[in-house]
Each structure stands twice: as C-alpha cells, then as structure tokens.
Specification:
two-stranded antiparallel sheet, mainly alpha
C-alpha cells in the first residue's frame, strides 16, 4: 500500500516517535486513515508502539524499506 510506504518512510527519515495525527498532517491523509494503516503496520511488525498512541519504525520496518523483506512476505 502506498500509504504504508509513505508512513514508514516518514518514520525512518525523521527518526521520531509520532502519533497518527502528526503523520497524517505531514502526509496529507486523514488521521482515521493513518490510524487504520498503523494498525496494519503494527500487525506486520513494521512499526512499534511506544506509548499510548505513539509509534516508531521497527527494525523489521527498516529492513522492509531497505528491500531486505519482500512485501509478499508480509501478507
């Protein structure tokens, strides 16, 4: 999903812990859409929850962006 890649890229490039609302604002998506996608990314272990409502990219997420994990392996 293009949204998922953009979320992961934002988290990787910023190296920050962000909320779905902040991600949505920076990516020009709705907070609800980003929240739904974050749930999928968390299920795939591509992001890690930090505190309630805050996320960072996981090592697996970084490996995916680096091309070390194929998208087919995530489904």
């Amino acid at each position: 999903n293009q949204t998922d890649d953009r979320i992961l890229e934002l988290l990787a490039e910023s190296d920050l812990i962000l909320t779905p609302a902040v991600m949505a604002r920076n990516l020009e998506y709705t907070r609800n859409w980003v929240s739904r996608r974050i749930g999928k990314l968390e299920d795939a272990e591509l992001v890690d929850p930090v505190d309630s409502g805050y996320y960072r990219i996981s090592e697996r997420g970084r490996a995916y962006l680096a091309g070390e994990i194929d998208a087919d392996e995530l489904e």
